[in-house]
Design goal:
The complex is a heterodimer of chains A (402) and B (302). By secondary structure, chain A is of the alpha/beta class. Chain A contains 17 helices and 13 strands. In chain A, strands 7, 8, 9, 10, 11 and 13 form a 6-stranded mixed sheet that branches. In chain A, strands 3-12-6 form a 3-stranded antiparallel sheet. In chain A, helix 9 crosses helix 10, helix 9 crosses helix 16 and helix 16 runs antiparallel to helix 17. The longest helix of chain A has 20 residues. The longest helix of chain B has 31 residues. By secondary structure, chain B is an all-alpha fold. Classes of the chains: A alpha/beta (402), B mainly alpha (302). Chains A and B meet through helix 3 and helix 16 of A and loops of B.
């Protein structure tokens, strides 16, 4: 009996040590980006966990969803991949991602109470968490304080309502110099949906209430800015980086864009620039902003979900470095950076993040978004009026999410 | 022994020819016929994001086609495609032909300059698109600046963001991109016309225009046919320029079938819809190819 027990003990310890010793290699698909976030995190994680190796493949932002679909359909998905946050629900609804809820609840590192609500809602589908946001980015109002002074505006009091935006934009516009007061992106891609929704949300609309009076007023507001020539007609083809370049060049007095532009603006902008909260329709109207950033997801086919989650825990534990080193707000709202870079901008974006609302979540998000993009472009080009354009979008969306 | 016998069979005579045929047919089957049939198949099926990897999917009959015809953007996009293809080919051919005749004049350095024309053609269309984007930019574009300096326009023309201009801007860039290729093919055709025919006509008193109409044009028939047929195919493939310049916008005003097919397949994941557009384009290209082949055959039977 004793012998048997001993033998069993020997075997089981041998088995355990074998498990520990056998190095696990995780296949990871990471976003190809200049800040090399996932690669850096992987190096640090490997140094602390010599039994886990991360084999990283870089994927271009435009391809992440296509590559994921292809890999999942052919059973060649990696252990960990990244998705743009509105796409998490689309992929999760096909039952191909691992539900991370239990692991998050059981984790000693991750505390779900500390998540910013926006990013985690965006990663949740039917009450289960399928994405692990790496953080969040959101929109703000950037303005050129030098142009404000030149136009007789007070740079310490940035416009905070739609009327104030119109008034300030008119003063900042100088047709002769082709200088415009205000800029946003209405390009026919996801970017215009991202930019438009906060305006509709502040007026009481949303993606599934896109033809409410508030949403219509929001689109009419955009339309009027272009009609009055205080925003360039080029907003129809400018994406957010293009818009940022126009701001850097001093051609636009105020723009709406994300916190991801801070490092570039800090390097390139030659004038006094500042950031304010997104304007609301009227004083006291609800605040809203868009929510961007990617989320990690573990495909169901992964043979090493525990190791993949351990890596996510490590990323979470480093949240307080996100803002200073990588330029986005952490997933964990208690993880405030030490001596934040651009402290005024940090204060604005950390505040704005509380109002950041996701897109969807909806399993057919790309189609929903397309309907909104079409409405924006149809209205701004006066193909139809704002109300009719949004009615069409609403009936398309109703057909999709019924 | 058997092996060397087989090797000899492969190397010489019938076996060698057979191997070549099999290799070519196999290549076509794998890389051309299979994707083509796969696309056609998908246009008759309900395809979901994650059923790309299987062949067995719910049969949709003609539903994808009827859905497509009922979309409000269908007619405008088809019309845009017709304008895009027609104008692109007419101008590419006319300007390409004029340049080919010009370089036939054999002035010093003509062959080198003609070679330089190809530089534009070998640039990737995405790069060409980026350059034309700066040219066409509404507020600070080169074209507006030039037109204003010449006093031709007062305000700005928003080449890419005004729905009245966007399609024509893409066409202008595409014409520019296609001219060198047309010119080179037509130059080769022109070089094939024997010089003594012209000499004889000149002695008979035919002037430049008569020579062009009675000798150059008829003898260039097959070449022109080939260039037009290739032009239709290349223009229907022109995706990158649209992507780089307008992404089909604003409000679909510059959207064309090939870009629409991609948008449906890879932006909104209506993969059956994208495959349906592609299948209809394949049918069109087959018609063009048949007309071309028959016209060339008739040409040769004279």
């Amino acid at each position: 009996m004793m012998r048997k027990l001993l033998l069993g003990l020997v075997f089981s310890t041998a088995a355990t040590s074998a498990v520990i010793a056998a190095p696990v290699t995780l296949q990871v698909w990471a976003l190809d980006e200049p800040v090399h976030f996932t690669e850096n995190m992987a190096k640090e994680f490997e140094a602390k966990n010599p039994d886990i190796k991360l084999d990283i493949k870089l994927v271009n932002f435009a391809n992440i969803l296509n590559d994921t679909i292809r890999a999942v359909s052919t059973n060649t998905a990696p252990d960990l991949l990244m998705l743009d946050n509105p796409d998490v629900a689309s992929v999760a609804s096909h039952d191909v991602l691992l539900d991370l809820s239990d692991r998050i609840a059981a984790s000693k590192v991750v505390d779900a109470k500390n998540f910013y609500p926006g990013p985690i809602n965006q990663s949740t589908w039917k009450g289960k968490i399928y994405g692990f946001p790496r953080g969040g980015n959101t929109l703000g109002l950037y303005y050129n304080a030098d142009l404000f002074k030149a136009a007789g505006l007070d740079p310490t009091k940035p416009p905070q309502t739609w009327d104030e935006i119109s008034a300030a934009a008119a003063k900042l516009t100088d047709a002769k110099k082709r200088q415009y007061g205000f800029g946003f992106s209405a390009v026919a891609t996801e970017e215009s949906t991202f930019q438009f929704l906060p305006w509709a949300q502040s007026a009481g609309g949303d993606f599934n209430a896109i033809n409410t009076d508030g949403s219509v007023r929001a689109l009419q507001f955009w339309q009027k800015l272009v009609d009055d020539k205080v925003a360039t007609p080029e907003v129809l083809v400018l994406n957010q980086p293009d818009l940022g370049s126009q701001f850097v060049a001093g051609n636009i007095g105020m723009i709406v864009t994300g916190c991801w532009e801070l490092p570039r603006f800090a390097n390139e902008v030659k004038f006094d620039w500042r950031v304010a909260l997104m304007p609301v329709e009227k004083a006291g109207a609800p605040r809203a902003s868009a929510l961007g950033e990617l989320a990690y997801a573990v495909p169901k086919t992964s043979a090493h979900p525990d190791e993949a989650f351990k890596f996510l825990e490590y990323i979470y534990s480093q949240s307080s470095r996100d803002w200073n080193e990588y330029g986005w707000l952490p997933l964990d709202q208690t993880a405030t950076p030490k001596d934040p870079k651009w402290p005024e901008a940090y204060a604005v974006f950390a505040e704005q993040m509380k109002y950041a609302r996701g897109r969807g979540p909806s399993p057919v998000w790309p189609k929903v978004s397309k309907a909104i993009q079409v409405a924006i472009q149809d209205a701004l080009t006066h193909k139809t009026d704002a109300k009719a354009a949004l009615d069409t979008a609403q009936s398309t969306i109703d057909g999709l999410i019924k | 022994m058997l092996q060397s016998g087989f090797a000899r069979y492969l190397r010489d005579g019938k076996g060698f020819e057979g191997t070549l045929i099999v290799a070519a047919v196999l290549y076509l089957l794998v890389f051309a016929a299979f994707p083509l049939l796969y696309t056609v198949l998908m246009s008759f099926q309900e395809v979901d994001m994650f059923t790309l990897g299987t062949l067995v999917r719910p049969f949709a009959g003609l539903k994808n086609y009827t859905d497509l015809f009922q979309r409000p953007e269908f007619a405008p996009i088809v019309w845009n495609t017709v304008i895009f293809v027609t104008l692109s080919i007419v101008f590419q051919l006319a300007i390409g032909f004029a340049l080919a005749l010009f370089f036939l004049q054999d002035f010093p350095g003509s062959t080198y300059v003609r070679g330089l024309f190809l530089a534009g053609w070998i640039l990737p269309a995405l790069v060409v698109g980026a350059v034309w984007r700066w040219i066409f930019a509404g507020d600070f574009g080169v074209l507006n600046y030039a037109l204003q300096s010449l006093g031709l326009i007062d305000g700005q023309i928003y080449w890419l963001s005004d729905p009245a201009y966007a399609l024509y801007s893409v066409i202008i860039a595409n014409i520019w991109l296609g001219i060198p290729f047309n010119m080179i093919l037509l130059s080769v055709g022109l070089a094939g016309i024997p010089g003594d025919v012209y000499e004889a006509a000149e002695m008979d008193g035919a002037n430049v225009f008569q020579r062009f109409l009675t000798i150059t044009l008829p003898m260039m028939g097959p070449t022109l046919g080939a260039v037009v047929a290739l032009g239709v195919i290349f223009t229907l493939q022109q995706f990158d320029l649209v992507a780089a310049l307008t992404q089909g916008g604003p409000a679909n005003s510059s959207n064309v079938a090939q870009y629409w097919s991609w948008q449906m397949s890879f932006q909104t994941y209506e993969i059956s819809g994208g495959a349906t557009v592609a299948t209809m384009m394949i049918a069109l290209v087959i018609v063009v190819a048949v007309i071309y082949v028959r016209s060339v055959q008739r040409e040769q039977s004279f």
